[in-house]
Design a protein that fits this description.
alpha+beta; single chain; 8 helices; elongated; about 50% helix
């Protein structure tokens, strides 16, 4: 749980008493590889912190799974649209590996915001970081070549490329697995 506490401390400072409250507000959950923490059509009722493992977020579109993000150790995962509005999610979040999470419910997060000094600041800063990343990815999908999108992936997730199946990397950058192979060969020749 110290990784979670340190991650929150990156955004805000808090007392030892507040640290103990944070530990009580989060609960542990384990996922096996291939298990979902959120399924499309269900309401996202928690914010997840990945302490060990790897998650993939994806949507189903016209019968195809489209990967929209990966969450590795020391990152927060959630369908924030569903979580904030408490409406059905359009995405699924699955474990690509055996994964250990700390989760905080919507209600406990409201308590966190109310009782932790600058707790609401943590929420704002976390959402700003996630929003900025999402906007960069959206712009890349529309403005960059497939090769540049792959280079962007490598910049953001290079340390994960051996942990993520090529099919999901291809889906994330918006190409077929065969196109990804060609892109990788071109880059290797440069």
């Amino acid at each position: 749980m110290e990784d979670l506490i340190d991650n929150i401390r990156y955004y805000i400072h808090f007392s030892e008493e507040e640290s103990e409250l944070i530990k009580k507000l989060f609960t542990e959950k384990s996922l096996k590889k291939g298990e979902n923490i959120l399924e499309q059509g269900k309401i996202c009722k928690s914010l997840f912190f990945v302490s060990k493992g790897l998650l993939r977020q994806y949507i189903n579109h016209e019968g195809k799974e489209l990967t929209i993000y990966f969450n590795e150790e020391n990152t927060f995962a959630c369908d924030f649209d569903s979580f904030i509005s408490q409406s059905p999610s359009e995405k699924t979040i699955e474990a690509l590996e055996d994964t250990e999470l700390y989760i905080i419910s919507f209600e406990n997060l409201q308590q966190f915001y109310a009782e932790i000094n600058k707790g609401d600041r943590f929420g704002r800063l976390l959402l700003e970081k996630i929003f900025s990343s999402a906007i960069r990815h959206i712009i890349s999908v529309h403005a960059d070549t497939a090769e540049q999108r792959y280079l962007n992936f490598l910049h953001s997730f290079k340390h994960l490329q051996q942990r993520i199946p090529q099919l999901y990397i291809a889906s994330f950058i918006g190409v077929t697995p065969q196109s990804l192979s060609r892109i990788r060969r071109r880059i290797a020749r440069k």
